[in-house]
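Researcher: We're teaching a course module on how sequence relates to structure. For the next exercise, students receive a sequence and then see the predicted structure as tokens, so they can try to spot secondary structure elements on their own. Here is the exercise chain.
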Amino acid sequence: AVGTFRQSRYAARIALPVPTMRRNAKVIAEIGFTLLFAVGRVVRYSCDSGHSSARSLALCIWSHLPPTLVSMKKVSERIRQLREEQGCSVRKLAALAEISPSALSQIEAGLNSPSVATLDKICGALGVPIVAIFEGEEPESMPLLMRAGERRKVYSAGSRATLEPLARGLPRKTMRPLLMVLEPGGECGEHPYSSAQGEEFAFLVQGMATFEQMDKLTELRAGDAIYYDPRQAHNWHNPNQAPATLLIVVAQ
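Model: And here is the predicted structure for the students to work with:
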């Protein structure tokens, strides 16, 4: 009661109601998470590549700030929403996704930034494509235009990768394109993983990457394309010193 009284007095002093203050605090927190991710990625990149000057570091930080970064917290909330809509318990979904219940609870609470492979397994267990956890419920119509500065992105610390869906809001679409940027040393999962259904096509836009499937490693360079069955265990790696940008289209 004392805390509520003090909060109310503070809200009255700055002429803002408590709910507004909470909303503002949430926005500030989202901005803080965005800056934290960007600075962390840039510092790690700078250490690996030898950039040391303040100007280079500042420019690098600016270039890494995404226009619309969806925090992993929102992705976690979306996973929990989909699970509850299907009437599935944490233990049951964890078993279907082949992860521990405690790991799923941490993911849903926003305490863990899972790898791309883990997100894909959770979505497979829920019967939805991976891009579904980045989408809101707002309806869209054809043709669907998504300008470069308006698309949503999410950063996976577990994979050192940024995912950027290129089409959202059309629940019945059969093709789900997305951009994936793998940082140096990044990989979709610690081990090869399988998707529940569909087919996938990947085009390497920039950099170099390694595709792994059936104990075979295939090196791709910019301009190379590969079509594969995601139901067979596979993985993406970037063992190189520069980021790799992949255009991936999932057909279901």
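Model: If you want an answer key for the exercise: The first strand starts at residue 154 and ends at 156. Residues 38 and 76 are 20 Å apart (CA to CA).
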